[in-house]
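Researcher: Quick test of sequence recovery. Tokens follow.
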């Protein structure tokens, strides 16, 4: 099969839609799955004919390499519906490119752009009734690729599966978000896989995050693995810090995920004439700003989390509260980005993609 041409997608529709069982007014995040999924297998060195089938269990050989060596990468995206019923995506090409960056790092086959984009569009056309319309909710989309090839030899698998599943979802965080600045564990290291959306990156965060939760925090802010001096990112979000009137975020590196929300926020902030600095920020600078009153805001930015304001942080057994401001940058930037995503405002950046 020529991988540059559009795939023919075989579609099998469900005979038993679950949509009437769903309470669209009270959606959790990522728990409810829609009726269909897109599936494409990689074998004999090429991607096979993709299909859309009713959402269902899959069966795998227990020696599949995903179970033993964790060859798995994923993306997180959202589909939005505007008040006229138009279905929209936000910068989907960036997710398509990033899944391939992740796949390459884990010695997995890259996906042709057409398989990702056309699979996504065909699936969304079928699942458009699953896109929630109440404020703050959307259809969370999870494209993922994992090793189905089997055998215990610790080497890349020769077979993989690419699936796109959809989950009508509400907010990722609820309530106040207090974070702990990590001083012992590391999420990633130089030369590692931190920049990839690899499943194992998240597994490695669970234990330190559990410890933080036991202490009353909801998330860990990762610091550099060398001396824990620099602020890096949170479990599922990039981090922004406002000191005085300047918005600061760390540069991406091979330890940090190059977030699509992050780079959009940087552009929107500049467009709003907010002074933005992309530079390394030390924990010391953050603590000093909290102590001398110049620390105004901290927030996380990500597809699932959108823009999530942080109410306080813990560092070396001491808690620092952030002020409760009116007219925050977080609220202003969240309005700008969600107005673009939900088609409520002009998209001067050309980020919105309408699914016709
Ligand atoms: N950092 C990590 C570790 C993430 O998992 C995510 C979520 O995807 C982000 C940052 C934010 O990235 P994006 O804005 O592309 O969703
Ligand atoms: C996303 O924001 O889409 C992510 O992938 C984060 C995820 C771990 C919930």
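Model:
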């Amino acid at each position: 099969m020529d991988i540059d041409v559009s795939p023919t997608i075989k579609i099998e529709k469900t005979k038993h839609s679950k949509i009437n069982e769903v309470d669209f007014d009270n959606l959790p995040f990522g728990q409810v799955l829609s009726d269909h999924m897109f599936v494409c297998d990689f074998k004999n060195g090429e991607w096979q004919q993709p299909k859309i089938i009713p959402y269902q269990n899959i069966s795998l050989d227990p020696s599949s390499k995903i179970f033993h060596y964790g060859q798995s990468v994923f993306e997180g995206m959202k589909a939005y519906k505007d008040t006229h019923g138009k279905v929209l995506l936000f910068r989907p090409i960036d997710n398509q490119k990033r899944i391939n960056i992740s796949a390459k790092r884990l010695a997995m086959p890259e996906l042709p752009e057409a398989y990702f984009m056309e699979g996504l569009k065909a699936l969304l056309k079928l699942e458009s009734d699953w896109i929630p319309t109440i404020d703050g909710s959307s259809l969370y989309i999870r494209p993922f690729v994992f090793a189905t090839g089997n055998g215990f030899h610790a080497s890349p698998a020769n077979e993989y599966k690419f699936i796109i599943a959809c989950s009508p979802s509400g907010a990722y965080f609820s309530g106040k978000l207090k974070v702990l600045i990590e001083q012992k564990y590391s999420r990633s290291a130089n030369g590692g896989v931190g920049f990839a959306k690899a499943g194992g990156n998240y597994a490695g965060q669970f234990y330190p995050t559990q410890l933080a939760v036991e202490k009353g925090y909801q998330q860990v802010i990762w610091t550099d693995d060398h001396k824990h001096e620099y602020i890096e990112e949170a479990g599922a979000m990039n981090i922004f810090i406002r000191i005085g009137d300047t918005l600061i975020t760390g540069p991406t590196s091979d330890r940090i995920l190059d977030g699509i929300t992050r780079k959009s926020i940087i552009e929107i902030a500049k467009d709003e004439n907010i002074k933005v600095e992309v530079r390394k920020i030390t924990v010391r600078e953050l603590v000093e700003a909290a102590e001398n009153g110049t620390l105004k805001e901290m927030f996380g930015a990500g597809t699932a989390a959108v823009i999530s304001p942080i109410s306080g942080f813990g560092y070396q057994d001491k808690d620092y509260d952030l002020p409760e401001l009116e007219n925050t940058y977080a609220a202003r930037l969240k309005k700008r980005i969600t107005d673009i995503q939900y088609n409520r405002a002009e998209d001067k950046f050309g980020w919105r993609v309408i699914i016709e």
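Residues 28 and 170 are 5 Å apart (CA to CA).
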